[in-house]
Amino acid sequence: MDIGTGKPDARTRALAPHRLIDIRDPAEPYSAADFRADALDEIGGILASGKMPLLVGGTMLYFQVLRDGIASMPPANPGIRREIEQQAEREGWEAMHRRLAEVDPEAAARIHPNDPQRLQRALEVWQVTGKSISSVHAERNSRPDGSISFRLHFFATHPSERAELHQRIDARFRQMLDNGLVAEVERLHRREDLHPGLPSMKSVGYRQVWQYLDGKLAYPEMVEKSIAATRQLAKRQLTWLRSWPGLRRFTGDPGRNRDQALQFVDSFTIW
Q: Domain total for the chain?
């Protein structure tokens, strides 16, 4: 999963060493709790070497878990997950969102109806434990499972205008297609151990190309839906950022954003 994830190329990785890339097969699950444990190990090693770690990405839940810890969550239940997926296939994810609103209004207000992975997990937690996922998160906040011995500083870079963001998203996905995204998904599609219900194959872009390969979408529709899904993802990211405490924002020219961010990093110590 190189192209659709926007993975740094070999030249970039030679210039700046990256961690936690190519550590799992697409068939293997990887949770936010897994990430926290791995990230803490890597951060500790980098700090011990006298260097400054930079964490880069757009999955805000993972940053939150790194910062705050995570409550004990029930493991995935394949049977219940499949029941939820089958019900969603019959009734649609909007109906599942309404069901979540009945048992956990707080989570329903936070989770978008077009976010099936988080909807499924919230409903799964409810069915397995009888507790809402919001109450489990509240337990985490009152009893965090561990502290960290370093300070985290958060900053975001993004265009100041929504139209420019949409233009970049459109160009970025079309560049992925030019780079061979369909062929990449074709190789995954041929594997017998992968299917569209896996979290990896539900990723934006991979899900839509998989549907195209299954004959469920025409090529132009696949492109349109992939770009629309990426816009929705960006919108959710911006929603996270609006409520993120202590966030420093850099908007405007990407090169200037980069320089400002690096100057900001140089201005503080991690301890």
A: 2
pLDDT bin (cut points 50, 70, 90) of residue 271 is low
Which CATH number do you get for residue 170? 3.40.50.300
Does residue 166 sit in the same domain as residue 46?
A: yes
**Tens digits of per-residue pLDDT, 154-168?**
888 888 888 999 999
Q: Is the pLDDT of residue 270 over 70?
A: no
CA 43 to chain centre: 20
For residue 220, the tally of other CB atoms under 10 A from its CB is 9
Domain-terminating residue out of 121, 142, 163: 142
CA distance 84 to 90: 10
Same domain, 158 and 229: yes
- Residue 145's pLDDT band (boundaries 50, 70, 90)? very low
CATH of the domain at 136: 1.10.20.140
pLDDT at 143 over 50: no
* Shared domain check, 184 and 220: yes
User: Is the pLDDT reported for residue 222 higher than 60?
Assistant: yes
Does residue 252 form part of some domain? yes
